[in-house]
Amino acid sequence: MKFLKYLLIFLAVIIVIIAILAFVAPTEVKVSRSITIDAPRETVWEYVNSLEDMHQWSPWAEKDPDMKLEYRGTEGKVGSVYSWDGDPETVGKGEQEITSIQAPSRIESELRFLTPYESKADAYVQLDETGSGSTRVTYGFESVSPRPMNVLNLFMNMDEMVGPDFEAAMSNLKKLVESGGSSGETQSEMAFR
């Protein structure tokens, strides 16, 4: 009986600790990376204005070149959807839907991850003119973790986890645009030029 009493006290303490952490832990998660591309904004826009174009500089496409892809809707328009189904340890399964287009400066989408775990995030690509004929590109996402799941944000640094992938995406985009690769040209086709 004494053991049960101590067990209940222990569980109550754990619940109180989790409740306190849930109120101090951040609920918002934001990750973004930027790069300057030596090309006018309108040129860069041709490489980011649709989900098919984005796939060409995606580092996740490189991680799992055998993933199954499907495009639905009118490409480059609000409501178009790109879905993928790949290796659960590298890219998982999910879809991305364009939610807003502000040509030639911003495209927004909703990411819906289905596996290895379910979650949603709002992604964007922002293009800003630098005044020197170059374009500053920012690629990122924002997500909200509901309480008490937000406690995990204290132990997992999403910026460290996915930041390198966003850096790779920006590097891939820069190479694609500055090499003059056409939007519609795959990364492997670029490699053989």
Mean of pLDDT: 85
Main β-sheet description: 7 strands, antiparallel
Coarse structural class: alpha+beta
Q: Identify the strand order in the major beta sheet.
A: 1-7-6-5-4-3-2
Q: Cα distance, first to last residue?
A: 76 Å
Indicate the CATH topology. Answer: Alpha-D-Glucose-1,6-Bisphosphate, Chain A, domain 4
Give the name of the CATH architecture: 2-Layer Sandwich
Shape: elongated
Q: Give the helix level as a range of percent.
A: 25-40%
CATH class wording: Alpha Beta
Percent in strands: 25-35%
**CATH homologous superfamily title:** START domain
Element order: H for helix, E for strand:
HEHHHEEEEEEHH
- Total tally of structural domains: 1
Radius of gyration, in Å, reads 21 Å
Pfam families: Polyketide_cyc2
InterPro entries: Polyketide_cyclase/dehydratase, START-like_dom_sf
Overview of the structural elements:
This protein is α+β, with helices and mostly antiparallel strands and 193 residues long. It has a single domain, classed as START domain (Alpha-D-Glucose-1,6-Bisphosphate, Chain A, domain 4), CATH 3.30.530.20. 35% of the residues lie in helices and 32% in strands. The protein has helices at residues 2-24, 41-48, 51-56, 59-63, 158-178, 187-191, and strands spanning 28-37, 68-72, 81-85, 93-102, 106-115, 119-129, 135-144. The protein has a seven-stranded antiparallel β-sheet. A hairpin with a 5-residue loop joins strand 6 and strand 7. It is elongated.
